[in-house]
Amino acid sequence: MKIGFSKSDEAFRQEVAGWLAAHLQGEFAQLRFRGGPGDEHSFPAERKAWERELASGGWVGVGWRAEDGGRGLSISQQVIFHEEYARAGGPGRMGHIGEGLVGPTLAAFGTPEQRQRLLPGILQGQAFWCQGYSEPGAGSDLANVQTRARLDASGERWLISGQKIWTSLAHEADWCFVLARTEPGSVGHQGLSFLLVPMDQANIRVQPIQQLTGTSEFNEVFFDQAETAANNLVGQPGEGWKIAMALLGFERGVSTLGQQMQFHNELEEVLRIARANGAARDPLLRQRLARAWSGLKVLRYNSLRMLSGPQDGSLAREAMIYKLAWSNWHVELGKLAMDVLGDAAEVLDSAPYGLSRLQSLFLFTRADTIYGGSNEIQRNVIAERALGMPREVKGR
């Protein structure tokens, strides 16, 4: 595990910080610290323009292989980029799912034709993706996916029917990667396939879901014989589970350090308020602030352990504990923020009574222990896959 950075790494850090300082200006200044979790509904068009700005500077796909159009930066430099991006207040990435999930998955499992056709749009900040995994009866338990797909009589198109849910930014996406059951009568992990589906078609309906924060950044998506070309199947029919799990492994990659820098920014805001309103003098709150600070350091060191292993989508044991650890930490930060604010936590400044950043944080973190695999599922994964304990006995 590498904790420090070389002189050349630190020179690269200055390059990244300088570029961001120069470009998060003018039309993009309003985007600083906007568009993160709980605020993803903000400035979608402007954040898409920002993706193109990043692309023009060579800051999309920094960790991708050169043969896929990326810069092939070292893990150290990728960590630096994500940390400096969050430190500078870079907005929530509209292209994250394409760059962080779809791109590495196509690099690992896609055909040369698929990579040549689909990767440039991501690298140029032109094509945006959403994730079609969860369903009303298959959230954390993806093996229960019921969305179905079949080849039409010509063998040239897949026809997809079913419902996905909690699909972030589906209303802004050009493409969706869909886990669907392509083998009739199959159950569990078997018979699933990984399909790439264009969103701009009449047979797909996107319906927003309003959250506790009053925003609607994720959606239900209904597929009614939705179409995609036969060559938009990744891997072979029936390999969907393997590919889907690898994609989740890529999700717990270098960008986790950027996520933690966003957490750092939130914690700094809580600390600033605690010093200003006197909450920092309360010994119990001071202890909780210290615990939050040290907990974030532990998350960072564990992420560095994760990144010391292979970056092929496989989940090392260190990666299996990450979701459970950060989601619980973030929930506690939301509670701490409200206690530091005191009475002000219950008050909205003025009409139209929009939530403050910390109020939105508190409400949005209610979902952190559910989405991306609930705490209960995460504990099963740790027990069964990381520790090798006996599998959970299913209900009779």
Automatic annotation (TrEMBL):
<dbReference type="InterPro" id="IPR036250">
    <property type="entry name" value="AcylCo_DH-like_C"/>
</dbReference>
<dbReference type="GO" id="GO:0005886">
    <property type="term" value="C:plasma membrane"/>
</dbReference>
<dbReference type="GO" id="GO:0016627">
    <property type="term" value="F:oxidoreductase activity, acting on the CH-CH group of donors"/>
</dbReference>
<dbReference type="InterPro" id="IPR009100">
    <property type="entry name" value="AcylCoA_DH/oxidase_NM_dom_sf"/>
</dbReference>
<dbReference type="InterPro" id="IPR037069">
    <property type="entry name" value="AcylCoA_DH/ox_N_sf"/>
</dbReference>
<dbReference type="InterPro" id="IPR013786">
    <property type="entry name" value="AcylCoA_DH/ox_N"/>
</dbReference>
<feature type="domain" description="Acyl-CoA dehydrogenase/oxidase C-terminal">
    <location>
        <begin position="238"/>
        <end position="386"/>
    </location>
</feature>
<dbReference type="Pfam" id="PF02771">
    <property type="entry name" value="Acyl-CoA_dh_N"/>
</dbReference>
<dbReference type="InterPro" id="IPR046373">
    <property type="entry name" value="Acyl-CoA_Oxase/DH_mid-dom_sf"/>
</dbReference>
<dbReference type="InterPro" id="IPR006091">
    <property type="entry name" value="Acyl-CoA_Oxase/DH_mid-dom"/>
</dbReference>
<feature type="domain" description="Acyl-CoA oxidase/dehydrogenase middle">
    <location>
        <begin position="130"/>
        <end position="225"/>
    </location>
</feature>
<keyword id="KW-0560">Oxidoreductase</keyword>
<comment type="similarity">
    <text>Belongs to the acyl-CoA dehydrogenase family.</text>
</comment>
<dbReference type="Pfam" id="PF02770">
    <property type="entry name" value="Acyl-CoA_dh_M"/>
</dbReference>
<keyword id="KW-0285">Flavoprotein</keyword>
<keyword id="KW-0274">FAD</keyword>
<protein>
    <submittedName>
        <fullName>Acyl-CoA dehydrogenase</fullName>
    </submittedName>
</protein>
<dbReference type="Pfam" id="PF00441">
    <property type="entry name" value="Acyl-CoA_dh_1"/>
</dbReference>
<feature type="domain" description="Acyl-CoA dehydrogenase/oxidase N-terminal">
    <location>
        <begin position="8"/>
        <end position="125"/>
    </location>
</feature>
<dbReference type="GO" id="GO:0050660">
    <property type="term" value="F:flavin adenine dinucleotide binding"/>
</dbReference>
<dbReference type="InterPro" id="IPR052161">
    <property type="entry name" value="Mycobact_Acyl-CoA_DH"/>
</dbReference>
<dbReference type="InterPro" id="IPR009075">
    <property type="entry name" value="AcylCo_DH/oxidase_C"/>
</dbReference>
